[in-house]
Write a structure and sequence with these properties.
By secondary structure, the chain is mainly beta. The protein is 12% helix and 47% strand.
Amino acid sequence: MNRLASAAVSWIVIVVIMGARAASAQPDLVVQKTDVTVNKSGAGDVTYVGVTVHNNGSAAAGPFTLRVGASRGGASATSDLAVAGLPAGQSIVRTANFTGTTWTCGWGNADLHGTVAEQYETNNCASRNEYWIAMGPGNSHEETIGVVNPSLDTKQVLLTLATPPGWIVTVEPTQMTLAPEELRNALVRFIAPQDFGDQVDAALFCVYIGGTPGWMEWDFHLETPVPVESTTWGAVKALFVE
């Protein structure tokens, strides 16, 4: 092969490689737990759920729908927000308002209708659930949580726990089949060890079988109650003694 032909072939190879790379460039819409905020206003009797969506991909995302939700045991509410698009490497923040201040969970699901072809479809959804629970040594406690399907497809979910050493923590049920937008209750039980005297964390994960649209998480902060006659509490009481 002469040099001219060889050069031509080389250029063809380069063009093909560049074309393949261009074709593989895709957006990647991401929502993580740290991207969700839940703020409550007692005066306005409203809960604000904010969700940040990142495009971590290598191409711009076209228009999509962000579903923002609030839930608790026995109830859920959603708000679908239109996003015109999101360039690669950029992020947007959207906030939805929900009546009442009893919501315990806020969550977001980017690209609700699956209109954006992404690099990964398993990181579109995340939630924030924070529980602070006071328990004495050897005591038990129960929490009813609401497990919601944030998508428009039927989902099978698996509930799994991350338990601190020495604790007995269970969840019932451990598996569910949820219709689109359905919410079902689960019961989480905690039994503290007899020598518990500090603060520990436990977590419950809701994993959607197949990976889409992501997963949800409940964070439980477990601590011993303040003894009534402790030095700190005694100092606080002294402020109100005439």
